[in-house]
Amino acid sequence: MDLDLTAEEEAFRAEARAWLAAHVPRTPLRSLETREGFAEHRAWERTLAADRWSVVSWPAAYGGRDRSLLEWLLFEEEYHAAGAPGRVTQNGIALLAPTLFAHGTQEQRARVLPPMASGETVWAQAWSEPEAGSDLAALRSVAVRERGGWLLRGQKTWSSRAAFADRAFGLFRSHADPDRPPHHGLTYVMFPLDADGVTVRPIGRLDGRPAFAELFLDDVFVPDADVIGEPGRGWGVAMSTAGNERGLTLRSPGRFLATARRLVALWRETADPGDTALRDRVADAVIKARAYQLFTYTHAERLAAGGSLGAESSLNKIFWSELDLALHETALDLLGPEGESAAGEWAEGYVFALAGPIYAGTNEIQRDVVAERLLGLPRGRRRP
Amino acid sequence: MDLDLTAEEEAFRAEARAWLAAHVPRTPLRSLETREGFAEHRAWERTLAADRWSVVSWPAAYGGRDRSLLEWLLFEEEYHAAGAPGRVTQNGIALLAPTLFAHGTQEQRARVLPPMASGETVWAQAWSEPEAGSDLAALRSVAVRERGGWLLRGQKTWSSRAAFADRAFGLFRSHADPDRPPHHGLTYVMFPLDADGVTVRPIGRLDGRPAFAELFLDDVFVPDADVIGEPGRGWGVAMSTAGNERGLTLRSPGRFLATARRLVALWRETADPGDTALRDRVADAVIKARAYQLFTYTHAERLAAGGSLGAESSLNKIFWSELDLALHETALDLLGPEGESAAGEWAEGYVFALAGPIYAGTNEIQRDVVAERLLGLPRGRRRP
Amino acid sequence: MKLSLDTSQLDFQRSLARMLGAADTPSAVRAWARGEHGPGLAVWERAAAMDVFALATPEAYGGAGPLPVELAVAFVELGRHAAPGPFVETVAAAALLSRLAERGAAAPAAAWLPRVRTGGARVTLTLPGGGPYALDADVCDAVFAVAPGTDTLRLAAGHGPVRPSLDPARRLARPCDLGEPLAAGPAVREAAAYAADHAAFAVAAQALGVGCALLERTVAYVRQRTQFGSPVGAFQAVKHRLADTLMGLEFARPLVFGAAVALAAGAPGAPAEVAAAKAAACDAAYAAARTALQLHGAIGYTAEYDLSLWLGKARALRSAWGSPAQCRARAMELFSE
Amino acid sequence: MKLSLDTSQLDFQRSLARMLGAADTPSAVRAWARGEHGPGLAVWERAAAMDVFALATPEAYGGAGPLPVELAVAFVELGRHAAPGPFVETVAAAALLSRLAERGAAAPAAAWLPRVRTGGARVTLTLPGGGPYALDADVCDAVFAVAPGTDTLRLAAGHGPVRPSLDPARRLARPCDLGEPLAAGPAVREAAAYAADHAAFAVAAQALGVGCALLERTVAYVRQRTQFGSPVGAFQAVKHRLADTLMGLEFARPLVFGAAVALAAGAPGAPAEVAAAKAAACDAAYAAARTALQLHGAIGYTAEYDLSLWLGKARALRSAWGSPAQCRARAMELFSE
What we know:
The complex is a heterotetramer, with two copies of chain A (384 residues) and two copies of chain C (337 residues). By secondary structure, chain A is of the alpha+beta class. Chain A has twelve helices and eight strands. In chain A, strands 1-4-5-8 form a four-stranded mixed sheet. In chain A, strands 2-3-7-6 form a four-stranded antiparallel sheet, with no helix packed on it. Chain A has three domains: 7-118, Acyl-CoA dehydrogenase/oxidase, N-terminal domain (Butyryl-Coa Dehydrogenase, subunit A, domain 1), CATH 1.10.540; 123-237, Butyryl-CoA Dehydrogenase, subunit A, domain 2; 242-374, Butyryl-CoA Dehydrogenase, subunit A, domain 3. Chain C is of the alpha+beta class and 337 residues long. Chain C has two domains: 7-185, Orthogonal Bundle (Butyryl-Coa Dehydrogenase, subunit A, domain 1); 190-335, Butyryl-CoA Dehydrogenase, subunit A, domain 3 (Up-down Bundle), CATH 1.20.140. In chain C, 58% of the residues lie in helices and 9% in strands. In chain C, helix 5 (87-102) packs antiparallel against helix 6 (107-118), helix 7 runs antiparallel to helix 8 and helix 9 packs antiparallel against helix 10 (307-319). Chains in contact: A-B, A-C, A-D, B-C, B-D, C-D. At the B-C interface, helix 8, helix 9, helix 10 and helix 12 of B face helix 7, strand 9, helix 8, helix 9 and helix 11 of C.
């Protein structure tokens, strides 16, 4: 057992670090959740992609470097340590791309992935509906068969990035069969956000910034080429890579390691060193960030050896979302009366972190999954 | 709104304080959970009763002083502040006596209460059975009709005090009716522990001391005079005063106030004053002890004004049991490496406190009750 | 001993609740956050007409105070309805000025307290032990300041730029360093401590109200929101989390009123009682906010849904007028007698 | 990078688990608590025969060590089976003596390490940063002591009376103040710190095993225990509490093995890694104990039910070889590079 990097991994890490040092904008970009900030972030993706740093673990053919999952983790550590901007392409890269690699056609991959990698096409996710949040199988929006494709009708909500993005992906009910469980008969489709029949209503999150949107879909045409996997089998397509959303590719340890380091720095600056109550909270956050890093290395190794990340991604999701909140709550408490200020990266990070236990499957659902699938406790019907 | 005592209350408090100062044993009695300690505690009850301090809120006819609930709370504060011994008569006084006051006959009260108040008869509770813990209505032990009374058969367990007590009280299934819910057809009886057919098997708690016992009942005869309330209606009889067990008469604030003061003293002795992490935990315990005191005063006032303590006693139960654990866990952490020692009152108190979230209705059940009855959330069937 | 509210206190509570419930405070907060103070000031004036400020003003200045129990009643309702404005600071200023007058510096009290009583003067302030910001200075008639480590009370000549808070109703500005000295010496130090206790006490009551509102809204939501074929509120994890929220609030409540009694009695232990109340009430309110957000899910995370107004306030009140650590340090004195 | 166990490590783990599983450690603990060491010592000898102590003994003394990863494997299993005896202290003593030998004081190592390796010597010790008690001194061949603030290693001439611990398997005694000095000077200070790190590390691994045993037993219990017509494990509150318990343990595990890697590499950050592992593993184990007790209910609260053996150990290990606060203070250095 060791934590040693190979010479090649070290070289890759050094190359990434050097590139980031030379390219990361000196002054932070404007918030991703504003129109101007969104454009700045899209431009940054172009810069990343130009030197093939946007998707290092992808095949070179799609803009990547064929790097291992571990190398991607190392890149992420460097990326966050360098204070580089948030990734506007995250929804596409972390959620849609794994699905395309697993279930897409060669044509789809060749058409969709390169502009995703370059930030030319920014993707939004469109899973939830007003009556289908945690209970995602209760989806009501439909895909109706039409010559050469499908017509989408209905309403999606909490669509992250949709306020300013180009395209979206989601599940639609295409085959109604009241005798089968509700997750049957769904179809996984990709669709444009500027098409006829699409209305995007941005929704402000707690700080008022439009981090997500409602989508109203009124006979939006989607060609067959934009269906992923078999029509009617979309649930399986979506779930086969759902672990990615909860697990390590959505929230790599680099992010929390960087935040933990900033928290230690804040503690050194602001805290009375004798205030061990706050020191213990900082230490807990540091310990957990380290635990998350080592946990993720272990799982990356298992994946690289051909293993899979199943229900364990639920543990992962609970852990990072609670860690992120603890990091930011501790920072606000360290800031004292300044902690209520809505300005500054700690406040923005706090507002962002508050959503963590809710999205990507609420932590309540994840705890059910952990108990049932990892511990073998009796399967509930998700009923009280 | 005020916290002022009347002159009479002050005088009562002063009298109690003076009496306790003169009578509380200088050296602590041996553990209540040993045969010798049990005898010492029984003798102490005699001393209390001789000067009418054992049941101050009872009518004088039964050995009390006709004092108000508030005065009883004041007495309890003085009692615990004086470091007086644990009450071996607690099960009888806190659980059986309220039931007798509410549902007993005049004859039962006259016969049972005075020897209870003097410690001559020490009572054990006998609710649980191996298959009926949280699910108390699943009781299987039976009371079979017999001329002039009932024959008890079956097994009870976790019977507190039963290792050394004289008599016990509990519920038995007397009327089987598969068409009615399981809490119908139960009868509330009092029975001797030294009778023919009773086998008492003491059970050691975590520290090995026999704090409770299993009771095996093999045709134990109980005369009709020892049935409380109507046969078959025992559930209602027991439940009408169940709030007492969870609520303020089982665990009065005096106990926790005294422990919180000892904790502050321990902190002053042992802790680095700069260790704010432990200080915050001590402060939290102090704040909670004070909250419990004020909360209880408020409820005592409401009861005195003719109100009742319903599901609120569940809040009470969760609060004191968690507070008791927090007090003792903080003390053990303050003690550092000495904290693992099994000797000493903090260790004994810790072991005792560990049971708090379990007995008198688990805290899980209490949270269900709070959610359903105080917040009006949908009633579960206690099923997943 | 008497710990329940009497009839006139209950009447006052109900009247205030009725007025605030009818006042559309969420809209007032949204306007306030944009610097449009009109709707919020209308609420302020109605509260003044119901004698909220008279409760903090001594009889010598036309008031009925100080009446801490009634103030607790008022601040619980103000918190429950998320009323915007420098209520806490104006009440604390009344405590500051009346205590100073008792100690011989009567001029500032004479100048300001009659106007405070009627709601005609909005006052904000910074004091040692509080933060550097004067709440809502841009809408106040006076900004008082006692700088940390000093014993001079100044009427600040203005304030710095207004900064937004995580609570949209709270607008933060630093008092300007210049300004007329109104009083100096040990009396200022003592009056400032007395006023800071009143501020912390009012925040505790306000936080309790905020927590109650969050709990009530969440209970209502989970009873009607259905997922997996059941009301969300039927899931045991949801039930237990709400039960804990209720417990936190129900055990903070007696501490808040216990602190009121101690302040009313001028008890030497009052600062510790206030600190205990603030620590418990602000913890309970913040826990209620986290629960409310989690159990609402995404809808709770949106600015347009009114829940957000209470969520931010629960966070902001944690550090207003005494951090959790400061309160705990002081609460250690509860049992010092 | 390689973080999974290799085949020989997995084989070792399985063999040890098999041996311990067959050894009826609960009975051995109950006897040990009464001062009847026979059954416990039989386990000790079987562990020694499987080279557990050789893992801590350098090759120069016939051992194979130090091999921290293998030691972590061993201590997780020892914890999981609640094996009684001074395993941690004997391994820490091996670290102390081998480090002292490297620094020039070779005589104690030569005298003791060959016997440690074979299990023929049971050794206990007290060191600065640890508590005042030497575990299981009454069954040890040597009691080493470095008093806090000193740099002299003594072979204590005996020990004080044996006191019971909340963990019935742990028998506590103070080393006697007299005894032959074996070495002195800065090398002792450094070796003592090195040994204390090894003790904390072994405790962390042991605690992880203890927590896993508590979780496994509780999961098994709630699957079969029925109340209200359902297995207790079907209630959401029970499920969520067990899910949290698993999470605590699963995220402590990589810290324990990360600390092993750091110790193996002689990394300067090793003390911080060890401290992080101990804080996390002991917290997770104690949380597992609280959960296990609560979800078992009364049966879990009885001494005769074997769960009690792990419950007490989880409590005792919290303060053994570094309090939670000490570990956190040191873990702050994790990111100091």
